[in-house]
Amino acid sequence: MWISEVKESKEGAEVSFKGIVLRQKGAYRYRVFDRTGEIWIDSDTPLTEGKAYRFYGKYKGGVVMVEEVEELVEIDIGDFLPFAEDPEGDERRFWKVVEAVEDGRLREFLRFVFEPIWDDFKRGVAAKKYHHAYIGGLLEHTANVGEIALKVAPMYRKNGIRVDLVIAGALLHDIGKVWELKIFPKFEYHEDYGKWGHIFMGASYIKEKGREFGLPEDLLLDLVHIILAHHGDYSKGSPVVPRIPEALLVHLIDNLDAQMNHVLKGGDRDSSV
Ligand SMILES: [Fe+2]
Ligand SMILES: [Fe+2]
Predict the structure, then answer these.
(1) Closest CA to 125 of 157, 155, 84, 94
(2) Residue 273 included in any domain
(3) Cα 202 to ligand 1 centre (Å)
(4) Which region holds residue 26: left if phi is over 0, alpha if psi is between -120 and 50, else beta?
(5) Please, which residues have CB less than 5 A from ligand 1, an ion?
(6) What is the pLDDT of residues 15-72, one digit of tens each?
(7) How many A from CA of 42 to the centre of ligand 2?
(8) How close is the Cα of 273 to the center of ligand 1, in Å?
(9) pLDDT in tens, 100-129
(10) Contact (CB, 8 A) for 186 and 22
(11) Looking at residue 71, what DSSP letter applies?
(12) 195 and 135 in one domain?
């Protein structure tokens, strides 16, 4: 059974389900979760936080009274955390956008920054809850923002918009989330880098990598500016507001995809994010 089903069981029903222990409260009470939700259980057998178990017991008063516990050694992480729908497709879409960058040096730079962190980036989440809050969500969101940038930016080429800069900025804007958020055992802010946040982490990573790569300083300044300004406003966590049209465009596209994902996954419209 999934935890969501356990919670719909009748009073006194026998239940059996898998869960990871999130935290302990008092001597016997534990909070456990799977990908469908969380529940309180009472267990005489001591349990360890972060470990997975199969539980057998009775559902009483909203709590599972555990009668038998079996520790699970091999687990499928997909039972406990939600995944993106099409991770391979997202990966293809992402690299296709990279290939669309016309400036060969900038294309090379994108490979240079993504390759060393690719495994973490691929598995990353875009937010704790608000949008793309599932494994692979960061890649899906980034591929979307990149694809939209690729469609929209050329419309303003005649007005002087640097299309390659918009596309590269779109792909890089949330790269710092690789450090800001951790995925196991729950989507949570990282105990260290969560204090610095993804805007700072992304900007500092790209600044360092840009110098190491030898990216022209004016291009590096604008790329880092796009990362710093992508939340659009001081009140939303950006230390600077967009000062070049390319940064404004990345901010608008980012917002578009984040809000659409939130609403399409059943969330309320929330214009404050
Ligand atoms: Fe962001
Ligand atoms: Fe974003």
Answers:
(1) 84
(2) no
(3) 10
(4) left
(5) 174
(6) 999 999 988 999 999 999 998 889 999 999 999 988 999 999 999 999 999 999 999 9
(7) 40
(8) 10
(9) 999 999 999 999 999 999 999 998 988 877
(10) yes
(11) E
(12) yes
Domain that holds residue 106: 81-264
pTM: predicted TM-score of the whole model, two decimal places: 0.82
The residue type at 109: F
Q: Which of 77, 101, 116 delimits the end of a domain?
A: 77
Please list, in sequence order, all residues whose beta carbon lies within 8 angstroms of the beta carbon of residue 208, skipping any fewer than 6 positions away.
Answer: none
| Same domain flag for 135 and 191 | yes
Side chain identity, residue 214? G
Q: What is the whole-number distance in angstroms between the Cα of residue 5 and the centre of ligand 1? A: 34
Give distance in angstroms: CA of 126 to centre of ligand 1. 8
Closest ligand to Cα 180: 1
CATH number at residue 58: 2.40.50.140
- Ligand 2 centroid to Cα of residue 174, in Å, is 5
Show which of 77, 100, 118 is a domain's final residue: 77
Among 12, 3, 121, 111, which Cα is nearest to 53's?
3
Which one of the ligands is nearest to 253 CA? 2
Same domain for 53 and 128: no
